[in-house]
Amino acid sequence: MVKISIYDENSYEKSIIELFQNLGYNHYYGPDIERDYKNPLFKLDLENLYVINKSLDKAAIDKAIEVIQDFGIASLEDINDRFMSYLQNGISVNYWKDGKELSTLVKFIDYENLDSNIFTVINQWTVVDKETKIPDVVIFVNGIPLVVCELKSPSREDADTSQAYTQLKKYMQVIPVLFNYNAFCVMSDLSISKAGTITSSEDRFMEWKTTDGSYETTQWADFTTFFEGIFEKNRFIEILKNFILFSNDSTKKIKILGAYHQYFAVKKAVKSTIQAINSDHKAGVFWHTQGSGKSLSMVFYVNMLQQELESPTFVIITDRNDLDDQLFSQFSKCSDFLRQTPKQATSMKNLKELLDNRKANGIFFTTMHKFDDYDEALTTRNDVIVISDEAHRSQYGLEEKVDPRTGKIKIGAARRIRNALPNATYIGFTGTPISRSDKSTREVFGDYIDVYDMTQSVEDGATVPISYESRIAEIQLDETILKKIDDKYWKLRQEAEVYNIQRSKKELSKMESLLGAPEVIDDICNDIVKHYEDNRAYELTGKAMIVAYSRSIAIKMYEKILELRPNWDEKVKVVMSSSNKDPEEWHEIIGEKSYKKELENKFKDDEDPMKIVIVVDMWLTGFDVPSLATMYVYKPMKGHNLMQAIARVNRVFKGKEGGLIVDYIGIASELKKAMSEYTERDNKNYGDMDVDKIAYPRFQEKLEICRDSFHGFDYSKFFGDSNLERSQVISGGVNFMEDVNREETKKSFLKESLLLKKWLSLCRSRANEKERLEAAFFEAVRTVLVKISGTGILSLSEINKQITELLNQSIKSTGVINVINVSNEVSLFDPEFLDRVRAMESSNFAISLLEKLLNDEVKGYTHTNIVKSEEFSDLLKQTMNSYINGHITNDEVIEELINIAKLMCDAHKEGEELGLTEEEFAFYNAIALPENIHDFYDDETLVKLTHELTDSLRRNRTIDWQKKESARAKMRMAVKKLLKKYKYPPKDMDFALEKVIAQCELWVDESA
To answer: 188-204: per-residue pLDDT in tens?
Structure first.
């Protein structure tokens, strides 16, 4: 009969190996390779460096190998940064030959000739450093371990990619020598496969969803798409060379692996640019939605193109100084990767000097306004690439306009740039779509190169969705007047004639007086403070942004908020540009450039007390604070300006369900207009972001489902004033759900209550107090259920802590709520604790709690003591089966479980009384297992045998035992020889020998 086993981690590992073999990789099984475990390089393949560098002297290659085996003392990030430079660019070495010191460049990968490289996958690759660890799968190129894959069993609910991530981070701490060479890491459990770098947080590990660059059908990607997408040899080599970089600043290093959408789009952009150079010089428009890494895509593009075109020059144009600073900063952090230092032009004269002084290379930044009134050619070179950030501004006209009053001709900005750089090739990068009526952008740049829309970005986890909440009616502003003034202002502004611009400014002053009126500012600020305190202060890190209509209104709002909350002087700040005409009292509030940088660092620090920032124009584009989840809008915005602004809250952050826009000015219609330019599926999914139409109805729907789940249970006392009664109701709710007849109801409730929590985070201000309290009850019950019935290990005190925090946040209770009043030092074996559990009114809760704690204890035995593991596991199963089948009552099962706890406690004491360590006691249990063993040996002999067996195993410990069958066989022989010395086992007790050997093998595996 064929033995059928579950599809476990080992099975999945074998399937991954087979997949790599199908891709043409060599395969080895780690334990079969004789090697020095302290050196993670694969010496056999490392010899290929002499082949790919065959034109070089052997001494040079010897020196290169020597360098990468001794990086000296430095942080892992610093060493890895240095190694990645060697991997991507080669290493310059000095060596001696014939008495002379020579230098040359040694390469570790032949990027020009794919087949010259050796690609190898090895599973179970042991590494000894601070500890001994055996990663599941390691991918090598030319003997260098570039990728570490940690796999988890697809069939175990308690083993997932989160555990794989934790394990990878642990490896980095205890076997850092392996990660000196790491390009990136992979975590996979078949259902989810993601890649990230040594500095990536778990939420920044990303899937790879395509092998051909298509986006439309990639909502879920199977593991074959992931591994074939990244590790097809040509693509893998290209990723190593061009899509991994370090972003370095004075405080930290961040290693970045390009996402799949960046890889395919950048390749398209490079191809389009090369074609444009030889034709119409219009490379096209690169549209990737805000937050999906557009700035880094530019870096990847520049790096790749400078190799393809033999050192072109790049001119990068933005339309504001702060955007120029932000983009320049990103490029500067990546200057090592780009192998040149970007420069900011201070003027057109300076830009001309920069271009004149560089006949090749060069990355120069400038702004649109510097081209005003400039009508000369900066350079006539045809290897200049102009990159425009946000490529569809209204001033990108190619046409000339005549002022009817003066007769002066005004040349469009795009025309001025074309005149200044007549032979350059132009490409536009944008986070928002080009208007269908915007023909000038297409005239300048051409059509789309690649579109990565909002829907795909959210599906990929690159951004989070945004919801919208209107507060206009509640503060009683006249929306009709606002809309009339707003429409007039924008209509005039878009016409662009100078005299209409002046009229527009006059209309602006009317709006300023309306929006800045003291009574309106009072209403707005009172509502913002209340909304923030009631709904958003506890959302993630509590970061929020207020967008003010003007600089003077920003100051008024700041002063009013501090008047309402005088102790918020560290919490709320203003960030906006300054002017020489500013009143003196503004100076301290606005500060100098260095002060703004200080505020930027504080706002980006999740732990800093600065939580709320008031802005006007600054920080609305190109500024990322991932934990920022709330934006209060008190400024009319349209089109891409509006979409760029609200995208400040769409960045990914752990636990972030989405961003919330709170509207005080009436931007709803403009949101819909702006969204009309997006892709069809974006319009379908995000065309209406209104909380009242989407989030709140979904919340109410989930609330009703949760109510139905508790049909028959009275939780009305939860809405009273007593913390004790609330605590008791939570326990009662858990007890209600833990009834064995409600297993399916509990599963449904756990799923629906989690969705309830998600929707409430976006519509908390719309939900009434009764709904919020009810949701708090369901969330409290869900939290406890997950912890007591789940597989994760969590102390009772941690459960108490989480419930207390949850209730404090949701219902603002000042009391302390404890589900079970226990201390941090509580033990399952504490008689006092067991008495408390026995006395609990919620018997189902008590049963689940005891079962979980006992299961955790049994799990501990499965790793250390095979005999006790089987004994207690059987006892626990028998007891729970009797309860489930109705053979014993609730009270009886609690007593049985408490008795098992006491038996476990007695087992611990027995080992101590025999003078045995926990490790030794496990061997003693195996040796003393036969029922009448004491008829043949006394305790003294069994203890002596235990000591000798343990000492023998320790002395002969070898890490190969875990994987090498030949080594395991030697271990078994040594154990049998020792036991034979004691004439063990007695006659007709061969089964005893099998149990001792099994315990020895368990010890070997756990030691390794």
So the answer is: 877 788 999 999 988 88
